[in-house]
């Protein structure tokens, strides 16, 4: 039986603060019901601070999915800035989501199934099949990143990895931010290749670096395009990632919105297991 990974986002949610109040901070609770079984809560997404168009990065896994058994996926959204007041909810038939191709559009979000909710806005869900295509073990560090925090402060960088979905880049993984550091060393992570690139190690990937902001409006610092094979090759031919390393074959340049170099990403470790 296949394993499915569920991803959620929402758009144009109603602000519970009204016209003059602060913007809602939505969090979603995900539950499923298999056939005649009792409801099973899969968990909660992270909170999207002051964001009426959240793209939640936490994913949820359904193992041993049997298409012959109906599975309903319930999504309920709550405003964590207002003591968990409910913002709206809906449910999806998992067979409908699982049958949607990766490039089948749901309005502007390709591969997602969207449902409008009575309180205002739309909730989107996408299911990707998880299979054994290996994992990318990746450790990155930044060097001399452009400071976008302002005078007397330093940025809190994190990175996102996005895959090409039709005409746009779809974020699939996000690192934790490193506080007050323009040459951050991010923790080593393992990324499923089935989710990252459908097992195609030459698929274009985009790594974007942002300055983390508590209100969720993260500031763009720079980005580059690469692939799994390029990351692995960069590590194979490069040095150890030290700032003073003479061998810079594993140094990848970031470019900002003005197409100017805004820092360097160093591939400290990259291999497939």
Ordered list of secondary-structure elements with their pairings:
Layout: E1 3-11, E2 26-34, E3 40-44, E4 60-62, E5 71-79, E6 85-93, H1 94-98, E7 105-106, E8 109-110, E9 113-116, E10 122-130, E11 135-143, E12 157-165, E13 168-174, E14 189-192, H2 193-197, E15 205-211, E16 219-226, H3 228-237, E17 251-255, E18 261-272
Antiparallel strand pairs: 1-4, 1-10, 2-3, 2-5, 5-6, 7-8, 9-10, 11-14, 11-18, 12-13, 12-15, 15-16, 17-18
Largest sheet: 4 strands, antiparallel
- Helix run count: 3
Which residue ranges are poorly predicted, with pLDDT under 50 across at least 5 consecutive positions? 102-108
Number of strands: 18
Order of strands, main sheet, comes to 4-1-10-9
Helix content: under 10%
What gyration radius follows from the Cα positions, in whole Å? Answer: 20 Å
Outline: globular
Content of β-strand: 35-45%
Structural class: mainly beta
Q: What is the oligomeric state here?
A: single chain
N-end to C-end Cα span: 23 Å
Q: Please tell me the overall pLDDT.
A: 89
**SSE order in H/E notation?**
EEEEEEHEEEEEEEEHEEHEE
């Amino acid at each position: 039986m296949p394993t499915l990974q569920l991803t959620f986002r929402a758009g144009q949610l109603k602000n519970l603060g009204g016209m003059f109040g602060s913007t809602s901070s939505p969090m979603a609770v995900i539950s499923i019901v298999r056939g005649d079984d009792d409801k099973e809560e899969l968990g909660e997404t992270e909170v999207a601070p002051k964001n009426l168009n959240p793209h939640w990065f936490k994913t949820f896994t359904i193992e041993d999915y049997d298409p012959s058994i109906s599975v309903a996926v319930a999504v309920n959204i709550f405003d964590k800035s207002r003591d968990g007041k409910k913002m709206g909810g809906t449910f999806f038939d998992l067979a409908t989501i699982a049958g949607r191709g990766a490039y089948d559009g749901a309005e502007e979000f390709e591969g997602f199934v969207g449902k409008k909710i009575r309180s205002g806005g739309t909730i989107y869900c996408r299911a990707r099949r998880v299979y054994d295509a290996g994992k990318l073990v990746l450790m990155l560090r930044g060097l001399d990143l452009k400071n976008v925090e302002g005078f007397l402060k330093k940025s809190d960088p994190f990175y996102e990895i996005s895959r090409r979905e039709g005409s746009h880049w779809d974020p699939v993984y996000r690192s934790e931010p490193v506080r007050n550091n323009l040459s951050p060393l991010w923790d080593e992570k393992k990324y499923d290749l089935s989710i990252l690139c459908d097992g195609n190690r030459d698929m274009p990937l985009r790594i974007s670096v942002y300055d983390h902001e508590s209100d969720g409006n993260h500031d763009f610092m720079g980005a580059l395009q690469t692939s799994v094979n390029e990351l692995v090759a960069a590590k194979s031919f490069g040095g150890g990632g030290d700032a003073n390393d003479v061998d810079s074959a594993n140094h990848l340049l970031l470019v900002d919105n003005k197409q100017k170099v805004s820092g360097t990403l160093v591939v400290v470790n990259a291999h497939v297991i």
